[in-house]
Amino acid sequence: METALPKTPWKRQVLFLAVLLLVWEVDCEAIRYSLPEETESGYLLANLAKDLGLRVGELATRGARMHFKGNKQLLQLDVKTGDLLVYEKLDREVLCGGTDPCILHFQLLLENPVHIFQTDLQLTDINDHSPEFPDREMLLRIPESAQPGTVFPLKAAQDFDIGRNTIQNYTISPNANFHVVTRHRGGERRHPELVLDKALDREEQPELRLTLTALDGGAPPRSGTMTVCIEVVDINDNAPQFAQSLYEVQVPEDSPLNSLVVTVSAQDLDSGTHGKITYALFHDDDLFETFVIDEITGEIHLKRALDFEASRYFNMEIIASDSDGFSGKCTVAVEVVDMNDNAPELTLSKLTSSIPENSPETVVAVFSVFDPDSGDNGRMVCSIQNDLPFFLKPTFKNFYTLVTEGPLDRESRDEYYQYEVCLTGESANKEFKFLNPIIPPNVIQDTQQYFTLGS
């Protein structure tokens, strides 16, 4: 029997670990590439081996593999040549929605020896979407007593592109009574408003039909249209007014359906039928699927379920209308509060089935953990039980390696069952446990998988 090497003093172990982590962080500086969305599959993005300073064929000999967030393959690596190719067309709107810039993160893992490189791909927007209105027609009922300068809100179009490729301006078909202005209230979305230039005369012209056009900033620009039908009605000289122009509310993402979000309130100085107010949501289809408003009380309730990871903010335009079409408008800003509603996920990248004895700090397995929640709810710390001759070494952004703690003695014990290695952790002050993250329990029971110590 060979004599086991003496254990490294505790202070030397800590110093060694600190130096190793510092070197690891320096080596893991991200490499960033840029690519227009919708680029054809097979497009040569770069030679990753050359950019990393690796020799031709070194990726293959060192067991290189790509790791993508969510395990969705976006790029393809030719380990023989080092070429990095587009695996399939990448749609920026699908992958990033309205987030700008759109940056996709992935890692290159070299197994022998273990090394991890962080790589980022920025998808730039192309003008591949046209503005679209929620409806083909919109009805406005405007009293003939309306004075020049009166402003009427119009429905906004939606364009999934960003930056200059999204909606920049609105125009209206030429007429003597109205012009349109484009309002920018923060963010990228622009809203049209119809401004009355000349008083209406119902007896002269009881109805107008105008074409509203939304234009984006592409070259050439894309456009979308909607017909604005204007019905001129008789006198009703007071419009509903809201108690406040902006309502701000925070709603936990785990709120049950039909929960009360907020109550808006408007008042009309007119009496009788002219002063009767009805409330309505005035926005796109996504909000109609998420929220519902009581047209009489102004109570806004939760309708389909909230998901902080999918949508963190909602801005609703609420219209209060009276019987003759006079209307007032307010904005409801809803902030979704994150809850710890996602379980951490573990992905195994490497597993060693045979461990040489008397080889301290041998890498047994490499894995990563991921929690979709944000802030403290997504922060994780992993550990294993103390009675095993292994320890977890954090590497880079939730990557861990399972390493032998010291020299192992085959004559004392020649195998360790994988189900003995149980990962536990903590996320947002809640403990969780990965039971046998390396081999599923039913496989262990059937095949009795284990680590073998070589002599």
UniProtKB/TrEMBL annotation:
It is found in: Membrane. One of its GO terms (cellular component) is plasma membrane. It is a single-pass membrane protein. Residues 1-28 form the signal peptide. Pfam families: Cadherin (PF00028), Cadherin_2 (PF08266). GO terms for biological process: homophilic cell adhesion via plasma membrane adhesion molecules. InterPro entries: Cadherin-like_dom (IPR002126), Cadherin-like_sf (IPR015919), Cadherin_CS (IPR020894), Cadherin_N (IPR013164), Protocadherin/Cadherin-CA (IPR050174). Its main location: membrane. CDD domains: Cadherin_repeat. Residues 134-242, 243-346 form the Cadherin domain. Keywords: Calcium, Cell adhesion, Glycoprotein, Membrane, Repeat, Signal, Transmembrane, Transmembrane helix. One of its GO terms (molecular function) is calcium ion binding. SUPFAM superfamilies: Cadherin-like. This is Cadherin domain-containing protein. It comes from Jaculus jaculus. The lineage of its organism: Eukaryota, Metazoa, Chordata, Craniata, Vertebrata.
